[in-house]
Amino acid sequence: MVQFFSKRRLKIAEQIIIVIFFAVLIPMTVSGVIINNINQQSNRAQLRDAAVMIANIVSEEIDVFEHSINNELAQIIATLQYYNSPQQEQKYLDTINLELPIYKELALVDKEGLEKYNSYNIQDDYVVVNRLLNDGRYIVAVLDLKSLKENLFRTLAGDKREIYVLGEGETLIASANYSEESFKKSLEQLPKKLETDKVVVYGDIKNQPLVYLKKSNPDALIIVNTTKYVTRHAIDYNRDKIILSIIITILTVFFVVGLYTYYLYINIRQLFKAIIAISKGNYERRIRLLTNIFTPFEIVFLGNEFNRMVNQIHKSYIQLKKKNKELKQMDEFRSNMVDTVSHEFRTPLTSIQGYTSRLLRQDIKIDEETRQKSLKIIKKQSERLKRMIEDLLVIPDIEGARLNVDLKNIPINSIIESSIMLVRNDSEKEIINNVQDCQIEIIADNDRIEQVFVNLIENAIKYSKEDSEIILDYEIQGDRLVVSVKNEYDIIPREKLKTLFEKFTRVDDKTTRTTRGTGLGLYIVKGLVEAMNGEIRLYSNEEYGFCVKVYMPIANT
Length: 557
Known about the structure:
- It is a single chain.
- The protein has 557 residues and is an alpha+beta fold.
- It contains 14 helices and 15 strands.
- The strands form four sheets. A five-stranded antiparallel β-sheet has the order 5-4-8-7-6, with helices on both faces. A five-stranded mixed β-sheet has the order 10-12-13-15-14. A three-stranded antiparallel β-sheet has the order 1-3-2.
């Protein structure tokens, strides 16, 4: 058994059962046995003492009764001396017999007539007492046993013990709760030699003590038998109550501990399930405790702390997933970005290199018009290359909120015109500038706001349908000027519009797959606009396929 417990860890319920067995069940059983034995010995002693006391009470009642009968007979005998005829004597005795119910019959008889009265026994409910007169006759008093019993056992009413009073020759004179079988057994167990004037306990059954009292004067034997009924009420009932109370206590302990163990087991099981779920990657699992008066504070505290820990893990897990998604996006666009950036850089560099080499050639003569045209192209491509480098350099400043801006009053029409001039419009799409007549000044950084509109106009040219127009318009909303850049395009779902301001995000369709780009344009534009206290919004509907609105604060005039 020791090897079994050493190899196998017990569950909480099993451990509690073992603890209850050794700490509650065994001690309570042993205590119950000890208490029962002590109670039984105490009750046994009480039964003996009660039997002895009853024997003494009956003895005293016999003494009183005998003294009373003797006095009455002595008075009767003394009175009879004054009567001269038998008729007068009998009349006197009849009068006494009527006045005293205890006497069933009073008569004067000779020795032969006495034999008639000796035939009376206990079954007749009579007892005969006689006294010898001086003239040789006997006065016989037939006593009613009912009256005798009332006198002898009047203080023992309700007691269930069997009491037998025997006269000479072990003749039964009176009894209480008489049972012939018990009476015979009581006589059979009497010692052969009886002690006189002393209460003696005898018998074979220790829980049913028998006592006798052999009186010498008058000659009488009193036997008190403790019946099974008395023993059961005095010993067995108390023993049953003790056993029942122990059983009820044990069952109560088992019930309360079982209920406690049940709720504790359920809560710990919840904890196990949550831990297993966490170990398998389910970071949304929470412990749902069954709380009541049986739920310990430690379990509640552990459950709350565990749920708090899981919440933190879940938040961290969500953030990690988000970061992983961003890393995956960065990894997906890395090759495309490198390829696109290298291509975007190569195109202006190739133009600059080609026209520079052409201008440096000595074997051909270049006219002034061709020279100026080549220099303008070199300048334009250099400015384009500069803008692309600025776009790449501004991203770390936007992410770190370290973007420095020089805010001042700038006319919006000049910004839009210079931005259009800097845009590469290889497809020669028509740009309708409705802002050229606007004389309103905005608060912005000149280079940054120019970079914003260059990116927006270039995006509109790249991602608009063929032979479509690019429209620049404006409106005033309170203290802000709203500049719109619109181009024809398929309607973009609202969910997709929300993601276009994120890094490396592009609309995934046939247009974007054939058009090079890094997916950083709108991200940069949004960062620049917000750094200048402005706002940018995207719209897509049937009225205009795609529209970008830039909200900038109007300068005070």
